[in-house]
Amino acid sequence: MRKQIFVVRSSDKIEPGIEQVLDTGTFDVKCQIGLSGLTASVLAQKPALVLFDISSWDNAIENSLSELMSVQGSRSIRKMIVADNAKIDDKVNALDLGADDFLIRPISSREFLAKLGAVLRSYPSVDVEEIQTLGALSLHRGTMELRIGDEIKKLTPKEFEVLGYLMDNPGRVFSRESLLEIAWIPWEIEQRRVVDVYISRIREKIEDDPAQPRRLLTRRGEGYFMVDPLKSIPKTKLP
């Protein structure tokens, strides 16, 4: 069965290049021009992925993405943005609101399809709740919740992905570049600080004192790693 891609174009002035690239017979492509009624359309269509084809990031796109993340029926649908231009803060904001990737044109058809495929594979559907634990932390994939004892905290999709990978590999040090490849697929070199932004946000949710972390640690000059603070910190090497 072909996966449905719901393309949202902010304006009919944008050339229909995305639809042409997707016209490979692999996908069932639907298109909407403008953002009006987007959430209702997505809930009706139930696509595998919503693709925002825009010229630049703005408040209207931000509000639409936020609304999709707030509605239960559309929260698990993958979301991807392709824009003519954007600042690093725009990308971070979009990822924090639930976007799985943010691409800037020009981008080759081959790279675009590869990244689209990676996003579609990144969150396989599960019929039963999958729980991932490390010490007192537990991640609940079905609800994208973080639990610390009896305390429940919500995570954005990107926070969930980064934290889940670190928890899967306790004691293993990951450099910024490694985390970019795992969770983002690297952008330009000057944008590596997006990793630091997310590490800081995750620490605010899992640490008693984010300024003195005991779970998500930094190895100076090497990268980040997770530990159970009730156990000794292992000596590790970069992968």
Please identify, by name, the CATH architecture of the largest domain. Answer: 3-Layer(aba) Sandwich
The parts where pLDDT drops under 50 for at least 5 residues are 124-129
CATH superfamily of the largest domain: Response regulator
Kindly identify the CATH topology of the largest domain. Rossmann fold
Task: Using the alpha-carbon principal axes, give the shape.
Answer: globular
Mean pLDDT: 82
- The portion of residues forming beta strands comes to 15-25%
CATH class of the largest domain: Alpha Beta
Helix content: 25-40%
The computed structural class is: alpha/beta
Describe this structure in words.
- The chain is an alpha/beta fold.
- The chain folds into two domains: 3-122, Rossmann fold (3-Layer(aba) Sandwich); 131-226, Arc Repressor Mutant, subunit A, CATH 1.10.10.10.
- The protein contains nine helices and eleven strands.
- It has helices spanning 17-22, 38-45, 59-70, 72-75, 88-96, 109-122, 157-168, 176-184, 193-206; strands at residues 3-9, 27-33, 49-56, 78-85, 101-104, 131-134, 137-140, 145-148, 151-154, 216-219, 223-226.
- The strands form three sheets. The protein has a five-stranded parallel sheet, with helices on both faces. Strands 6-7-8-9 form a four-stranded antiparallel sheet, covered by helices on one side. A two-stranded antiparallel ribbon has the order 10-11.
- A hairpin with a 2-residue loop joins strand 8 (145-148) and strand 9.
- The model is unreliable at 124-129 (pLDDT under 50).
